[in-house]
Amino acid sequence: MKIQAYSTASLSEAIVAFGQFCRSHGLNVGVQETQDALNAARHDVLVYRPIFKNALRAIFCTSPEEQKRYDRLFSLYWDTNPIDLQPDRKNKIAVTGTLQKKNTAALVLLGQGKSNPDEEEEAKNVSGANASERLRKTDFSKIREIDARELEILADRLFKEMALRLRRRMKNRQINGQIHLQRTIRRSLSLGGEPIKLSFKGQKPKRQRLIVLLDVSGSMDKYSFFLLRFVCALRDRFRQSEAFIFSTSLVRITHLLDTKLLNLALINLAQQADNWSSGTKIGTCLETFYDSYGKQTLNGSPVVIILSDGLDTGSPALLHSVMTKIQRKARKVIWLNPLKGMQGYTPTARGMSAALPLVDDFKSAHNLESLLELETILSNV
Amino acid sequence: MVQNPQAIIEALNDYNYVADEELATALFLLLKLRKPILLEGPPGVGKTEIAAVLAAWLETDLIRLQCYEGLDLNAAVYEWNYQKQILLLKSAEANHEKMAESEIFSDKFLLKRPLLQAILHPKAPVLLIDEIDRSDEEFEAFLLELLSAFQITIPEIGTIKATHRPYVILTSNRTRELSDALKRRCLYHWIDYPDLDKEMSIVQMKLPDIESELLEQTVAFVQTLRSRKLAKTPGVSETIDWAESLMALGYRRVTAQALHQTLGCVLKTVEDISIVKEENAGLME
Known about the structure:
The complex is a heterodimer of chains A (381) and B (285). Chain A has 381 residues and is an alpha/beta fold. In chain A, 49% of the residues lie in helices and 8% in strands.
């Protein structure tokens, strides 16, 4: 919608059309904002263009990023120069279009039909009575195609149950503190006015913030996939969740934490994953996280979960210093390393050993069962 | 009444506050549309101060609500003075008197906290809600309700409507994203660190006796510090404090010794101070 200002009849019309123009380019301009703009215009503030521009900026924008976009839109609309706006697509994961095939994200990520006989053997070797037991213990990277859908359903169910348990635990925990005067008086009504039964002010349980940083390079994407669904299920439990993925660079995916969007996004991710080189720069990516998003996210002592195999192609010293900075601001740092699920693994890789001393909990999260074990850690936070 | 934003810039100048056109326009809209304004920006750039200056200029009171996590209705709006109520009830009982409910829940037992004070004020006050990003979502939701209708309901008394709509200024350090609904309810202005000229005029205004050489050196130095990646970037208030300390210590120029003595006024973490000290060991003389 590129109506130029000169093509409208009156100034009011031009302002309303400008509001619509901004809305079509992503600014949150509703009826109220347009109304305020028209009110402002009545105060003879239009006489000078910079004042008019500033006034509408104060009304239409809600952040410095929006202000920059607004400035461009303003000159585009009110000048008679039809320049095309280049959409900014760097570092944004856009959820593109509809899928032709009805793939579940699980199937695509776990390698459609790529299972070979050796892997199948390993999968069978897990001892367990019934199928779901077996599924819970199977390593994510070794799931067979036929089990993928079942695993997804099982995972969703178990995560929901866990979220419910955590919520219940929160409500029941009441520590005796100060006397709650109103409730005590109320209770004393039935006892003739004498405060025999005392009520206490329970401590309001503080909800935590959660930050999740996921390594999606190489084979890590399968583990990240399940961990992301885990985080989605727990979204209500945490006050604010932020999610990032990294491999050679860091990308923020918090806005995709809605489960419906997540599936589409992960399928896109899987298709792009082949483009990423195999070397992971954990230290650099974490540093990008700290510099770009640290001020906004590392407040209020969040719980930080990092999922990575610790194989860093960058310098261990950098990883160590960034982890120190993060650890200082976080309530708890949990490092999940799927390699830990393998027998005989010791964290000797340079990256992993540099980061390990700064980690509060070092877990594996290589199969459903180990993910569910996180529940204990998270509920004690 | 105020005619245009330029008048606001001049008026604020009289109160030693340097405002640019953008901020003045936003304040102009605050006065005309009576919409609340949200000021966001890094710490130390004068977000809180503008409220005090505005109150002084409009010759009205400043009512301040400092937000923190866990801020609730009792601390923000009102609370009943339970202790006093119970004492009076007990003493009435002892004297075999009866106390009517309307007497128990009367004005003398109502502790008015900032938000209630603001709407009951005889003259429209400036209501400063400071660091709203430190409060939680529940408080934000409540605030949204208040800012739309400017009335408060106390169950025992009824609904109290505002006598005069206060001028509401919210500030935020952007430590978290505020809810969209709240942001859209307000006018928005981002106050960034000032550039060299603006900062010099700000410091000059606050410290009229400062010598020009000292002024130039201090402001230039802080400007270069801001371009670096520091743990805590210094704001304008730090520049002013530093200049004032240097003047108090009798320095007329920024020497290496002066820097060594007073760097703590500008930089507030050990790492930042040690990095800068190392770099400037041989430079300043």
